[in-house]
Amino acid sequence: MSRKRATWLTIGGVLVVALVAGLAIFQPWLLFVDKTANEGDDPAAVVGTASGGIAGTDVPSASGGTTTRVVLATAELIDGEHGTSGTATVYRRSDGTRYLRLDDLDTSNGPDLHVWLSDRPSGGDCAGCRDSWGIYDDGDYVRLGELKGNQGSQSYEIPASADLSAMRSVVIWCDRFNVAFGTAALA
User: Fold this and answer.
1) Same domain, 147 and 73
2) Which InterPro entries does UniProt cross-reference here (predicted)?
């Protein structure tokens, strides 16, 4: 085999390996495939909005053994690195448990997407600056789980140990690329 042919075969092999590695890391086909989650909401009756905000504890007691819930915070999701819309609502049930509800979520699919509560403000750090959507892992955050679907409605239990008093936003977070796909202000 000639030296020239061996060089071209080596270059071709390196390019194939780079292409396969790039596809494995970036998973570009996910941008064209939607995953829909259609979870029903908690059946407990909403009896009001907590006056204490996200850290509120003023939940009316259940009457007759019926579980109730109050809204601690609600906000519209806004675009991050990807177009995102829907509503994020944090509830506290009369038994003290809390959960996040995402209704009518619509965002891009992507690799390694998660739902977080963060102490960073919704909307990025600075308009248009480099890494303005990568700030959400710089402070405190609560991981609620993998995003169940990039479209639809879904709920996430909030751990009892989570201190919500400092949490300022809901974040659809891409762990693979350390960016927020979208956020919603909680405070």
Assistant:
1) yes
2) DM13_domain (IPR019545)
What is the C-alpha separation between 89 and 186, in angstroms, rounded?
8
- The pLDDT tens digits of the residues spanning 109-128 come to 988 999 999 999 998 776 65
Strands 151-158, 98-106: pairing is antiparallel
Same domain, 86 and 3: no
Asked if residue 133 and residue 67 are part of one domain, the reply reads: yes
16 and 43 in a single domain? The answer is: no
pLDDT of residue 109: 92
**pLDDT tens per residue across span 129-161:** 656 788 899 889 999 999 999 999 999 999 999
Count of Cβ atoms closer than 10 Å to residue 9 Cβ:
11
Give how far Cα 180 sits from Cα of 6, 22, 69, 80, 116, Å.
45, 21, 29, 6, 10
Q: Are residues 24 and 100 part of one domain?
A: no
C-beta separation of 100 from 144 below 8 A: yes
25 with 91, same domain?
no
Which domain range does residue 15 map to? 1-32
If asked whether residues 88 and 175 sit together in one domain, one would say yes
If you compute the radius of gyration of the chain from its CA atoms, what whole number of angstroms results? 21
For residue 3, what pLDDT band results from cuts at 50, 70 and 90?
confident
